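Appendix C reproduces, verbatim, an entry submitted by the partner laboratory led by Prof. M.T., so that reviewers can inspect both the input and the predicted structure.
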Amino acid sequence: MILRLLWPKILIAVITCVMVGYIGSLPTTEALSSWYPGILKPSFNPPNWIFAPVWTTLYVMMGVAIGIIWHAGWEREVVKNAVMLFLAQLVLNGFWSVIFFGARSPGGALVIIIILWILIILCIKRFFPINRFAAYLMVPYLLWVSFALALNVSIYWLNK
């Protein structure tokens, strides 16, 4: 019974996260073939093909995590706060791509990714007392965004 109630929430959450990723990919796809190849990048810049599978995996993990949190009881204030914090970071996640790739602004994206990084840490902290597994599902996302932050700083510095 509990699993039947949990899966629809996870499915809705995963679809929502993947859709945010898809929306963010729209300006990214165009920029990867035009603007991005022409800018200076650090030696640790990964190949472009790696981003889609990594982000897809992370969006699925994020969706499962927030689905579990949502299932822990929307009537609980701690759950509502955790969900709202998650939604705030998810919006920033999508907005980062629009600013970095769409607006071609590594500096503007840097401000966003710093705030995003902080919000992810706060999400993990809020998730942990509700459901530890959900909190742990967010750790790879934090690690990848930490890498993306270092990449964003480097690109900003090299191209300012």
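DSSP finds six helices and no strands in the chain. Additional entries are available on request from the coordinating office.
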